[in-house]
Amino acid sequence: MAQHQDGDSRPDVARLSIGIFGGTGDEGRGLARRFAMAGHRVIIGSRSTERATAAAAACGRGLGVTGAENADAADQADIVIVAVPWEGHGELLAALAGGLSGKIVVDCVNPLGFDAHGAYALQVREGSAAQQAAALLPQSRVVGAFHHVSSVLLLDPEVAEVNMDVLVLGDDREATSLVQALAARIPGMRGIYAGRLRNCGQVEALTANLVAINRRYKAHAGLRVTDV
Amino acid sequence: MAQHQDGDSRPDVARLSIGIFGGTGDEGRGLARRFAMAGHRVIIGSRSTERATAAAAACGRGLGVTGAENADAADQADIVIVAVPWEGHGELLAALAGGLSGKIVVDCVNPLGFDAHGAYALQVREGSAAQQAAALLPQSRVVGAFHHVSSVLLLDPEVAEVNMDVLVLGDDREATSLVQALAARIPGMRGIYAGRLRNCGQVEALTANLVAINRRYKAHAGLRVTDV
Q1: B137 phi and psi, to 5 degrees?
Q2: Disulfide engineering: B22 pairs with which of A13, A14, A211, B83, CB 3.0-4.6 Å?
Q3: Angle formed by the axes of helices A201-217 and A129-136, to 10°?
Q4: Closest Cα in chain B, distance from residue A75 (Å)
Q5: A119, A120, A193: residue with CB nearest B216
Q6: From residue B115, how far is each of A131, A167, A191, B112, B119 by CA, in Å?
Q7: How far is A217 from chain B (nearest CA, A)?
Q8: Is the pLDDT score of A9 beyond 70?
Q9: How much is the average pLDDT of A119-140?
Q10: A112 touches chain B (CB under 8 A)
Q11: What's the complex ipTM?
Q12: pLDDT (tens digit per residue) in B181-221
């Protein structure tokens, strides 16, 4: 695969420590595992230290993932990934705004509903989960990314490469470039800049389409961007 | 590329005639050209027969594309593609509802706004252009598709294969399967079922992200669905 050229020198992110709110869920735990495998120090955050520690242990021996209460995870991390359920997303971020001040916060939350016909996008007053985060965290640098990554693939020990592109959205070029570089730490993945935060709602909502594709084709679908 | 398996026998669409509303625009003309190259009879529709005829001639010699007023194009076609600007989309479809009765109508309209920061998704009362079409055409079988196809690639005589997947959305399985097969008539393209019409809004809106990608990477970006 050709390296993409976007005019940035690729920032060196290899030493960044990563906190993951909602790291006890499949998506957060999957990202924790892959970033730890890539050599990052990873701290799983949860409301309960006990559950965070258990999830960290479940990431696998020797990876060195630790668990902590969310506020402590934020303190210890250079960058924080938010992978909590949409319910409680706003409340959690509002409570932790102080500790997230000055940090890059990567929101990968998809506001979806489910019924007999499958998944559908929920209306979000702010336009998207990422824009809600940006409104609640005015002192943080909010980036949207990792919305479409299959937790099944992330957690599967047989899957060596996660072959998909991660769409990265944000209004702060340095922050989006850094998150693009972070995505590229997972073998097979590229981080592709895909617009400003105001265009994040449809990226989150598109997860409902991937759910439909997975159901129809019995797949773990992801996206690749062509010609980039 | 592996053929996808989705449990359908691929319908035979080789003999379908295709009407294209808005075939005087780049997107419509590009699709007209590619479908004519694939052997389809194509009728470009416009409010003006004269402009339709001129656009048909511009598709290239020997392709046999013809032009007609929209209502006549609908009459002559087995299937109609709607590639008009979002402004006037509803008005046009409401006026032509009778002639579209019983037909498959493929909506590829993207409701976008543009400002100094680039493209952004417009709010649509019905949820999406395709859902607006479905509301206005209760006797037609509305499918959403071809939203992300670059008109530059479609119109470029040097481009032999248009390497991307077309997301196909709709509530009528026979109609979506047929449009999937139609997409596959263009070399390089696959038609991938991507959910019901209620999930079409984010697919239309995602075109704003592709505009941002094209601007950043100087590309003509499209999507491929992985693992399908």
Answers
A1: -125, 65
A2: B83
A3: 150
A4: 33
A5: A193
A6: 19, 22, 25, 10, 7
A7: 6
A8: no
A9: 98
A10: no
A11: 0.94
A12: 999 999 999 999 999 999 999 999 999 999 999 999 999 99
Could you tell me which of B148, B157, B182, B176 has the C-alpha nearest to residue B33? B157
Closest C-alpha among B92, B87, B203 to residue B149? B203
A109: contact with B, CB 8 A cutoff: no
Distance from CA of A154 to the nearest CA of B (A): 14
Of the listed ranges A56-65, A80-89, B68-77, the least confidently predicted one is: A56-65
- Contact across the interface for B202 and A195, Cβ inside 8 Å: no
Are residues A221 and B228, on separate chains, in Cβ contact within 8 Å? yes
The pLDDT assigned to A1 comes to: 37
**How many whole angstroms separate alpha carbon A192 and alpha carbon B158?**
27
> Is the predicted pLDDT of residue A2 greater than 90, yes or no?
no
Say whether B193 sits in a helix, a strand or coil: strand
Does the pLDDT at position A6 exceed 60? Answer: no
Provide mean pLDDT across the span A35-53. 96
Under the phi-then-psi rule, with left for phi > 0, alpha for psi from -120 to 50, and beta for the rest, what region is B92? alpha
What are the angstrom distances between the C-alpha of B26 and each of A65, B34, B58, B79, B95? Answer: 53, 12, 11, 20, 23
List pLDDT tens digits, range A134-188.
999 999 999 999 999 999 999 999 999 999 999 999 999 999 999 999 999 999 9
Helix (H) or strand (E) holding A72: helix A70-76
**Quick check: A205 and B208 CB within 8 A?**
no
Query: In a 3-state reduction of DSSP, which class is residue B224?
Result: strand
CB-defined contacts A:B, below 8 A: 137
pLDDT at res. A11: 84
Q: Do A209 and B202 touch (CB under 8 A)?
A: yes
Q: From the CB of residue B88, how many other CB atoms can be counted at a distance below 10 Å?
A: 11
Q: Is A73 on the interface with B (CB under 8 A)?
A: no
CB proximity B222 to A under 8 Å:
yes
Q: Give the pairing type, strands B112-115 and B118-121.
A: antiparallel
Q: Does A68 touch chain B (CB under 8 A)?
A: no
Question: CB distance from B195 to chain A under 8 Å?
Answer: yes
Low-confidence ranges of chain B (pLDDT < 50): 1-8
Minimal CA separation from A211 to chain B, in Å: 8
Provide the pLDDT for residue A34. Answer: 97
Residue B165 is given by DSSP the state: E
Interface of A with B in 4-43 (CB under 8 A): 4-7
